[in-house]
Amino acid sequence: MSTTGQIIRCKAAVAWEAGKPLVMEEVEVAPPQKHEVRIKILFTSLCHTDVYFWEAKGQTPLFPRIFGHEAGGIVESIGEGVTDLAPGDHVLPIFTGECGDCRHCHSEESNMCDLLRINTERGGMIHDGESRFSIDGKPIYHFVGTSTFSEYTVVHSGQVAKINPEAPLDKVCIVSCGLSTGLGATLNVAKPKKGQSVAIFGLGAVGLAAAEGARMAGAGRIIGVDLNPKRFEEAKKFGVTEFVNPKDHDKPVQQVIAEMTDGGVDRSVECTGSVQAMIQAFECVHDGWGVAVLVGVPSKDDAFKTHPMNFLNERTLKGTFFGNYKPKTDIPGVVEQYMNKELEVEKFITHTVPFSEINKAFDYMLKGEGIRCIITMGA
Asked: Which CATH superfamily is domain 182-320 in?
């Protein structure tokens, strides 16, 4: 490409301060350094994690910053030492990575790379700690190594999944975070057998993706648990067949589910981050074979309390990060599941806005409207 090795000037939606609308700015994007690639972003999406760190209520604020981590694009140029990607490749940048060299990357059981595991506090690139974004010579910080709310971004090559060029990027861009997190929690960790019952706690985007995984696995009953009854109708599209609103019952949810299922569900997946829901999700699985999987991120001071007999009675509790998918190795396969019509992605996409109206996507999420909003770059 004619821009290789040169600074690119392009539009980016910059967060100048916590909780304030993003501002469309012209930024300078430096060329990729060692083990980095520069990507032209074509479509991006808003995830709750972006909103959480934009609001900066529970962590050290780092501004000005370019958020965004669910996206699809095309490699514009590559830095020194990049051998598995080339200009023109269709890719999904991912908030966590796979260096290929550490013990986690060598383990078949883990996807928690030592080098490239998610880091929400880092504002520069791993290679030199510097930002590749600037305005008038002043750095604009990165977010989780992806910063996809920019027409061009620079990402470590270990955080870039090369995918089938036939896959529509305006659909599969959402595979790079929330969808895979929920889907993999069910398919890779809970692993329900055909005909088994699955309870999903929390019917937001991640919970619906967990339900989609249960549907794909051939679950016999998928029970959705949520405090918001408005979510129940939408969840039917994802295979959820029964609903429990804890507010409707004067006994613990785990007891309600046990009574519905003759002693408990075979599998449960918790996608809320509420420690109460985590305990309920564990205690509602059947003794002897039940497996509960925790996906939601708890508050700092939370403690999980349950009686040890729940374990001794052969219930299993597991946790997962990014659905146990290795970003570079496994995510291209999730895209293929979509291409083979096994995974249904379109139903997650409820809104589309042009890049110039990105703040609308924040409004939708803050109001709890819709599941995923696709932001079309260059529009």
From this structure: NAD(P)-binding Rossmann-like Domain (3.40.50.720)
